[in-house]
Amino acid sequence: MNSVTRIGSRQSQLALIQTHWVRDELQKHYPEQAFPIVTMTTQGDKILDVALAKIGDKGLFTKELEQALLRHEVDLAVHSLKDLPTRMPEGLVLGAITQREEPRDALVLHPRWQGKTLAELPPGAVIGTSSLRRLAQLRHRFPHLTFKDIRGNLNTRLQKLDRGDYDGLILAVAGLHRMGWADRISEVLDPDISLYAVGQGALGVQCRAGDERVLALLQVVHHRETALRCWAERAFLRQLEGGCQVPIGVHSQLVGDELTLSGVVLSLDGQQRVFGTQTAKVTTEAEAQALGESLAQTLRAQGAEAILQAIFATVGRS
Ligand code: DPM
To answer: How far is the CA of 172 from the centre of ligand 1 (A)?
Structure first.
């Protein structure tokens, strides 16, 4: 029996922290087996000078890992779930979704503003983000602020902030926690300001379809409640055909088996905003997906359809 399971990961510090967490859990449950980590660079790690939405390719941070899986060079791959496209390549499946960390976005400020909130920043303060979702929501809510693109891994971004290129950045709380930088958070953004990205704060572990050995191993890192929420969120996004080209945000909450999903679709300039919430009793993946699809249909009928058409007409559909 094969007792070596190779784990694919991106090379960034955040990606490695995430991958080590999954590896340590597997090692704890299966002490006799070996889980070597194989690192690789993705297109998204290489192209650092172009805005994310302009590259427009789905699976920017995941494709190389997926190819390694299909070539049997690795047996599983650890991703930030939010970076993983909602449609998987033929032959691959999402074998596990890990317990979600705090999914909301955070404001991180240059030390001279530390402790202030977005509402308290002076007009013209420069906020760095390359997420259309964050950009549209914050433009909608805080027209007094200026937004500027920023790329690079978390380390690079914080350096750019601290040397004065920006007054503040919007980053996921989860990533900041994992990097040990939670003390830099000045404000955690509530849903009335920013809904989070689909899957934000959870990890997605991908493996080959039908690889029963690996699928069985992965059960120890799977978290059912997180998975129900994320299946609903991913179905919502898939139904709206949103990749990183469209400003789409979500918020979900599971109480017992009542799942409440909220979603928002905005125009790129943040001027138009369609928001909705639905609740359903959910105990299976299929029921969670049905909720996500239903909310997407409702928002389409309420104006999201027109917003999406306008965006696809300007940027094209990737
Ligand atoms: C995706 C987006 C961003 C990442 C777009 C979005 C943020 C890009 C930016 C799809 N992937 O969120 O609307 O703000 O410039 C990424 C981060 C994490 C996973 C970093 C972050 C860590 C948090 C997590 C980049 N992917 O969002 O601050 O596990 O969810």
So the answer is: 6
